[in-house]
Amino acid sequence: MKDKEKKAPIGGLGAIKTKVGIIGAGPAGLTLALMLQKQGIQSIIIENRSREYVENRVRAGLLEHNTVEVFEELGVADRLHKEGLVHHGCYIAYNGVIQRIDFQKHTQREVTIYGQQEVVKDLIQACIDRNIEILFEAEATEINDFMTGEPSISFTHLGENKVLNCDFVAGTDGFHGLGRKTLPKETYNEFKIEYPFSWLGILAHSKPNYDELIYAYHNEGFALASMRSEKVCRLYLQVPNDEKIENWTDEKIWAELENRLGIELDKGDIFEKSITPMRSFMIDNLQAGRLFLAGDAGHIVPPTGAKGLNLAVADVRNLAKGVTEFYKNGSDELLKSYSEKCVARVWRVQDFSNFMTYFCHKQAENGSFEQLLQKSKFDYLRISEAYQKTIAENYVGLPFDVF
Ligand code: FAD
Ligand code: DHB
C-alpha cells in the first residue's frame, strides 16, 4: 500500500473536507480538478476503479481543437503534441465513392487523434504532481444535503465508510453513476434514442495506410478507419445489437473492413476487440442546489461524431468558471446559468452526432425510399461546399462561447 493511501483522513472519524467533491476520475472529473486547482480551489476526486483500470479503459480518440486548447492552458498537452496526430480533414465515402471534408479550408481549425487512455494518463499524472488528491477504489454511495450550502458525499474506501464534506458536488461519474440517479426526477426531462446497431471496435498493431479518418457507408454496413499512431490502427464496423464478439474471427473482421472501406489494410495483430451499443441520451437539466452533473453523467451521444469526450470538457469548463466566480467574487450568477449554457451545446452536439449516425449507417433496404434519400444527401455533399462546411464546423467543434 502506498504512503498516501495509509494516511488517516483529515478531520478524523472518517470525515474529510474540501471545497469541491468530485465523483469520477474520467476526463470530466480530472479536467475539472485541474481547472479548479489553477484558480487555487481545492477539490478531492473519488473514483471507484483502480488507477490502472481507468488508465487502460479503451474509448474515444479524437480531440477537438477546443479540447486541445483547454489541455494547453492547463499545461497538460506536452505528450499530446509529441504523440498526437493532427488531421486537417477526413473522408466520407458512400459505396466506394469518396469525398474529402477539408477542415482547414472551411474552418481554419483541425482535430488531433490521441487516445482517451493517454489523455487520462496525462491528467492523472498532472493531478498527482499538483497535489490534487484522487482516491482510487473509492465508491461514492450517497450524495447528501445538496439542496443546502453544506453537501457531502458518503463513500467507501479501503473497506471503510467515509464522508467527504464539501461546498459543491460535481457528478462526473459517467452514464451509470450516482450523480444523475440523485438529481431529483422532477427537475428534468429525459430524451433518448437506442439505435438498432452497435459498433465492433478493434485496435491492431498495423500501419494505417490512409492519411485521414474514413467514415464509410456501405451496403453491408458502416465502417470507420481511425488510428492511434503510425503503428496502431483503430477500426470500427457496424454490427447488429445482438451480435456476439465470438462470431468475429480476426480474418472475418479484416475481410469485412476491407470490403466496406474499399481499401487494402495492413492486417496486423488485433489486440483489443469489443462491441459498444449506440445511443443518444440526455436530460435537460444538469443541476439542483449544490449538485452539478457534467460529461456522460448528463448525456451520451452516438460515437459517429466523436463528441463524447469533447462535450465532457466543454461542460466542466463552464462549471469551473462558475465555481471560480463564486469563490473570487461571491457571485452565483454563472452557476445559476450552468445547466442552460451546457444544455444548449449538448443539443447542438446531439443533432450533429445523430445526423452523422443516420447519414453513415446502413438502415434501410437498398432501393428503398429511405436509402435513396440517404444517398441523395451524400450526392449533395459531393457538390456542395456549404454542406461540407456545415459538417466541418460541427466536426472540429464550434467555439465554446457560441454555445
Ligand atoms: P467517464 O469516462 O465514464 O468517467 C466517469 C468515471 O466515474 C469512471 O471512471 C467511473 O469509474 C467513475 N464512477 C462511476 N460511478 C462512480 C461512483 N459511484 N463512485 C466513484 N466513481 C464512480 N466517445 C467518443 O467521442 N468516441 C468514441 O469512440 C467513444 N467510444 C466509447 C466507448 C465506450 C465503451 C464508452 C463507454 C464510451 C465511449 N465514448 C466515445 C464516450 C467517451 O469515452 C465519454 O464521453 C467520456 O469518457 C466521458 O467522460 P466522463 O468523464 O464524463 O465519463
Ligand atoms: C474515433 C472514434 C470515433 O467515434 C470517431 O468518430 C472518430 C475516431 C477513434 O476512436 O479514433
Notable features of this structure?
403 residues; alpha/beta; FAD/NAD(P)-binding domain; D-Amino Acid Oxidase, Chain A, domain 2; 2 domains; eight-stranded mixed sheet; six-stranded mixed sheet; 21 strands; globular; disordered N terminus; binds 3,4-dihydroxybenzoic acid
User: What is the C-alpha radius of gyration, as a whole number of Å?
Assistant: 22 Å
Query: What low-confidence regions span 5 or more consecutive residues with pLDDT below 50?
Result: 1-12
Q: What is the terminal separation in angstroms?
A: 45 Å
- Quote the beta fraction: 25-35%
Order of the strands making up the biggest sheet? 7-6-15-16-17-14-18-21
CATH class of the largest domain: Alpha Beta
By CATH, the architecture of the largest domain is named: 3-Layer(bba) Sandwich
How many E-type strands? 21
Global shape: globular
Helix content: 25-40%
Please summarize the sheet with the most strands: 8 strands, mixed
Tally of discrete structural domains = 2
- Tell me the CATH topology of the largest domain: FAD/NAD(P)-binding domain
**Count of runs of 4 or more consecutive helical residues:** 14
CATH superfamily of the largest domain: FAD/NAD(P)-binding domain
